[in-house]
Amino acid sequence: MSTGAVRARRLASLLLGVAGTTALAWLFGSLEPRWVAVVWVSLVPWLLVLDRVGSWREAVLAGVALSLAFTSALFGWFPAAIQSYSQAPLAVCWLALWVLAPFMEFQFIAFALVRYHLQRTTQAGPWAFWRITLTGALVYVGTEWLCPKLFAETLGHGLYASELLRQGADIAGAHGLTFVVLIANECVLAAGKALVAHGPREGSRRALAPLAVLAAILLGGLGYGQLRYQQVAEAKASRPDLVVGVVQANITKYEKLAAELGMYDVVRMILDTHYRLSDELLQSRKLDLLVWPETVYPTTFGTPKSEAGAEFDAEISGYVSRSQVPLLFGTYDLEQEREYNAAMFVGPGRDGTLTRSAYRKTMLFPLTEWVPEAIDSPWLRERLPWTGYWKRGPGPQTLAMQLREGRTLTIAPLICYESIFPGYVAEEARRGAELIVTLSNDSWFSGTPAPKLHLMHAAFRSIETRLPQVRVTNSGISALISPTGEVLTQVPDDQRGSVAVTVPQTPHLSTLMVAWGDWPGPTALVLSAVLLLGPALLARRKVRQAESPHPLPEA
Length: 555
Description:
This protein is α/β, with parallel strands linked by helices. It contains 16 helices and twelve strands. The chain has helices at residues 3-28, 44-52, 56-74, 78-86, 90-104, 106-121, 128-146, 169-234, 254-261, 263-284, 307-323, 378-383, 422-430, 450-465, 512-516, 520-547, and strands at 242-248, 289-291, 327-335, 338-348, 354-360, 399-402, 408-415, 435-440, 469-473, 478-481, 487-491, 497-503. The strands form two sheets. It has a six-stranded mixed β-sheet with strand order 5-4-3-2-1-12. Strands 6-7-8-9-10-11 form a six-stranded mixed β-sheet, with helices on one face. α4 packs across α5. The chain is globular, with a radius of gyration of 27 Å. It starts with a helix and ends in an 8-residue tail after the last helix.
């Protein structure tokens, strides 16, 4: 067979393996329970490709190819969303996604290179497979932590559809689940190769160890999930449950509306709609807290920029005074010409006056909300007029809110993008938060899988901290999430609605993620470095000892 034919055959094999893994990832990425089992075999087609690569260049090609295919399949909705926001040509948005794909999914490239290196340098023996498997999985998880992603996705998110298996996230987060998914896929591949290469009898014997590890992963995950589910269900708190009013008005694209109606009329319409939906809730239930979504009040609160702004501020304060129900809503906060995306709490105080406190968003979406000062310039602003001007807040905080009858509630406030960062939320939980409250704006992604994926991220934060969560968005998906990650109540995407949700108050259950924060990534990075460099350093030391002259015996 000619060299060209061999290369063509290898390329075809690579493309087939990449296509197989991408298709399986797309299936379990739908987060439907019927496809959750696919995650355990999703990487097998690509791992078969990696077993056949003949050089480091082919390993890099296999990683780049999967990053492009994976990104296109799971985030193919993103270019259209960027086009809608920036008005850039769709082709340019797709090109930007493809250029970024190898950097956003760099773990595929790092994993492929390390696996190729280990297969060439690891001496054959009973522990060779486990060294390659463990090191590769650690490199994968460590690379995801070292090279943060725009959407923070990881393979472990595919286990969200399993109500029991996802409970393991309170130990090591979604990245910990990714680690066991990688180990499981390697075990499936090893068992299959043993059966094909050695026949049923000998192959079954050789496949016993990887299959036993696979069974331990599955049974251990299911057993732990059942235990934690039971602990959450049995936990009882002495405090009464909270009743929170959630308002989703489904009013979007403020800039377009302002161009058509004028900014004053737009704010008037937004507030009137939220007053009406809130009044409907107040007439039917006794609320402890009322929550409106991110940037629902699209100007500064407390530091008005005009007389009309001052009137609107007074109107919101008057609404809280009349209803005697605390209000948490999204707005802008201004301090010394620095503007922040903020969650503002306004509540009736004990002496009849209103109390007010603000939380400033820290984790801002790159470019659209915030531009790093190192690259911010008039040149950039001129070419990208849609870039944001907000400044970053001080970091994780809690808000202590005075509710009815003198009751105090400590919340972990999150604004939109912040809900994808495990360590950020864990820090707020360590500070004594009793409830996660997320204000979000997913309107630019309405009609795509993005609102569902964002909701899934939020649910993982509740699992990791064992805190209930109220999530309020302007266009969906607003929801009540339990400490086990279950969506108890929701207002669907692209719908208007208001709902009073009853938040069960449970005693705080300790978790490793709260105690140690987002520990899996850095731990995996250190361990993978030890496994990669340790044998080489030991071998070099032995060589030096062998080459060094023996000391003369003492006289």
